[in-house]
């Protein structure tokens, strides 16, 4: 009986208002109308900023990763800094847990891929990029190239990937298609580019000179076609999703016009001293939305 009375005594003690307050056990109910706890400082939750980027957690699109700029290329509920697929709206699914979302992941069932760089051009063209020919400008978070007939225009930077397998992914909108004097019209990306000689490996969609059938090509530029596949159309306003990949001397191009994947592959011994990646057009203007570099072991 004495033991039971001692327990009751403790319970009674804890229910004393002053003691509960001292021990931090006072009633703290949630008031949904204001979003804070009764008894807490009124702006407690509004002021929480776990990543110290000056954006309160309640309004931060990456609450655990600093991104004061809040850039969000695909306008979903996750900012570019913490989005597992920042260029395309996705559901956040990452089956293999490697922080590359399944929609973007070259190997969605095998962990090890890594987003090295995502550039949405929110701050214009980075100073590390080198432009050759054409006129390259930034406009509304995009990069726009204006070029004329038979002008080969490039915008590239040194490849930041260090692993064996590199993927370059980009989204573009076809602009003015100029009547070419030779070599056709193309909009694409480059993956193993030698900037001093303006040559290397490119994946592009376009129209070969004199042709009416649109194609996707893997090219060893300036003029060698390594592989080609037909696609439905190449007209002004087309949205192009392109992926180029490199593993040793083997290259591949993938595009999904109308949601149907088209793939080509080939080999080249091109070996620039400082490989660049980026954008390339011929006899064509274009608007590039973003560029992403992914690497795999």
Written description of the protein model:
With 297 residues, this protein is mainly beta. Among the domains are: 2-28, no CATH class; 130-296, Jelly Rolls (Sandwich). It has helices spanning 2-15, 17-22, 44-47; strands at 30-31, 36-37, 114-119, 130-132, 135-139, 142-146, 152-158, 165-177, 185-194, 199-207, 215-221, 224-230, 239-247, 250-255, 262-267, 276-282, 284-296. The strands form three sheets. Strands 3, 5, 6, 8, 13, 14, 15 and 17 form an eight-stranded antiparallel sheet that branches. A seven-stranded antiparallel sheet has the order 4-7-16-9-10-11-12, with no helix packed on it. Strands 1-2 form a two-stranded antiparallel sheet.
CATH topology of one domain: Jelly Rolls
Low-confidence segments, given as residue ranges, are 1-38
Multimerization state: single chain
Estimate percent helicity: under 10%
> What's the CATH C level of one domain?
Mainly Beta
How far apart, in Å, are the first and last alpha carbons? Answer: 70 Å
Shape: globular
What letter string, H or E per element, gives the SSE order? HHEEHEEEEEEEEEEEEEEE
Measured on Cα atoms, how large is the radius of gyration?
Answer: 27 Å
User: What's the count of strands?
Assistant: 17
Would you tell me the structural class of the helices and strands? mainly beta
Q: Please state roughly what percent of the residues sit in beta strands, choosing from under 5%, 5-15%, 15-25%, 25-35%, 35-45% or over 45%.
A: 35-45%
Count of alpha/pi helices: 3
Give me the CATH architecture of one domain, please. Answer: Sandwich
Largest sheet properties: 8 strands, antiparallel
Mean pLDDT reading: 84
């Amino acid at each position: 009986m004495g033991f039971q009375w001692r327990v009751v005594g403790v319970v009674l003690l804890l229910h004393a208002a002053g003691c509960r307050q001292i021990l931090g056990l006072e009633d703290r109910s949630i008031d949904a109308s204001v979003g804070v706890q009764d008894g807490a400082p009124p702006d407690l939750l509004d002021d929480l900023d776990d990543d110290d980027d000056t954006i309160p957690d309640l309004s931060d699109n990456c609450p655990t990763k600093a991104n004061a700029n809040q850039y969000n290329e695909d306008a979903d509920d996750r900012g570019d800094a913490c989005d597992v697929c920042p260029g395309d709206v996705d559901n956040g699914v990452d089956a293999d847990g490697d922080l590359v979302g399944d929609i973007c992941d070259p190997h969605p069932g095998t962990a090890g891929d890594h987003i090295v760089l995502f550039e949405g051009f929110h701050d214009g063209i980075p100073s590390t990029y080198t432009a050759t020919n054409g006129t390259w400008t930034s406009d509304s978070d995009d990069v726009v190239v204006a070029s004329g007939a038979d002008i080969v225009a490039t915008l590239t930077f040194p490849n930041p990937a260090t692993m064996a397998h590199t993927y370059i992914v980009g989204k573009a909108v076809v602009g003015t298609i100029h009547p070419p004097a030779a070599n056709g019209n193309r909009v694409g990306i480059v993956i193993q580019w030698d900037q001093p000689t303006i040559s290397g490996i490119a994946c592009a969609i376009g129209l070969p000179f004199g042709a009416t059938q649109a194609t996707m090509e893997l090219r060893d530029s300036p003029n060698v076609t390594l592989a080609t596949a037909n696609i439905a159309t190449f007209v002004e306003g087309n949205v192009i999703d392109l992926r180029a990949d490199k593993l040793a001397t083997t290259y591949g191009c993938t595009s999904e016009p109308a949601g149907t994947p088209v793939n080509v592959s080939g080999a080249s011994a091109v070996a620039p001293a400082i490989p660049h990646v980026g954008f390339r057009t011929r006899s064509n203007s274009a608007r590039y939305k973003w560029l992403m570099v992914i690497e795999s072991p």
